[in-house]
Specification:
The chain is an alpha/beta fold. 44% of the residues lie in helices and 14% in strands. It has three domains: 4-98 and 231-262, Rossmann fold; 100-228 and 265-271, Response regulator (Rossmann fold), CATH 3.40.50.2300; 279-381, Arc Repressor Mutant, subunit A. The strands form two sheets. Strands 2-1-3-4-5-11 form a six-stranded parallel sheet, with helices on one face. α2 links the parallel β3 and β4. The longest helix has 19 residues, at 324-342.
Length: 396
Amino acid sequence: MQSNAKFPRKTIGILMDWYEPRIIAGVADFARSANWALILDYAQVHRWPDSPGPLDGLIVLLGPHPTASAYVLQLNIPFVTISDADEGLLANCHRVLWDEELCGKIAAEHLLQLGFRHFFVLRKPKRTLFEDRYNGFRKAVEPLAKSLRTVEIGESISSHELAEPICRMLKQCKRPLGIFCPADILALHMSRCAESQGWQVPQDAAIVGVDNNEIVCDYAPVPITSVGMNYREAGYRAAEMLQKVLTGTSDGRSKQEYVIAPTGVTCRRSTDAMGVEDARLMNALQIIRTDYPRILGLSELASAVGLSNNQLSRLFAQHLGRSLPEEVNRVRIEAARRLLTETKDSVKEIAFRCGFSSPNYFNKIFKEHTGQKPSAFRHSAAAPPTFKPTSPHVPE
């Protein structure tokens, strides 16, 4: 980034078609370092003037609305857009977007890892980002899915309008069911519909949403597991891209695109269950989830559920695609992640609390599962977002 002294202070507006404060926070992170004056008057949805006044640039959050896209284009102000936008009018504009297919894949892998093989997805075919999330989910589950049912919805996300088609489809679904909703508010509606039909969340239906909106997810009747989309970084990257256009360090005529990867799954109670149908394997998994801090051997667990060692090993491979030690480590790492973010216990204390034989072995297994050492994971979870220059991820 260029030094502030070299360029006069820029006045930048944020214009939003739907309100997302985490994006504004990301823009503000960059604006502080760039010495921008931010104009937030137009961040309220659709409260846009005929002329936004003297601005040097715009950061625009658009949905698939041609009238909104046309409004931005006629302003003749340098801008960067965020989200799928209207790909017809804005196809050649600078933009930041999310890897939506990867989002769906991450949700699918989470449910598959829990043993679910019957699935239900809400689709929104007329929205590119929602359909991409569905396609990512579908491609990931298809090799192992025993069933995959969908309900197509329109622009409305009213719980009243969605209840009837969701409840009708639930009556055709088999339990235990893994459910993917392409937005947290839809996951909340799904949870209420499931419970209205006598389904227990998560025992009968495990639900994953998208956005990791803490207000929706944490205060739902059953807190919702969600895939985080890293909105704050999207705001930061859009501002960074706009700065390059304004200062001439990027070709203003060539389309620039930056793709943000999801941050991963934040686990809550809506997926705190296993989706296997075999009662003996379910008993074994429940023992693991309860007794993971102590050493769990194959012979001991097999005896507890009335199976031979070979029989239990085959059930793990058949239903989960992993071994007993791999499942024990998975559960221990889940517990360790929670302790690292929710307590101040030392890494050594957490290692022993979760059943690992030594801190060194804990570090090794934790990095295999998360890509980070425990101390680095704790630091990144606790620190305010900071963004270092990286090469943009471009989807194939």
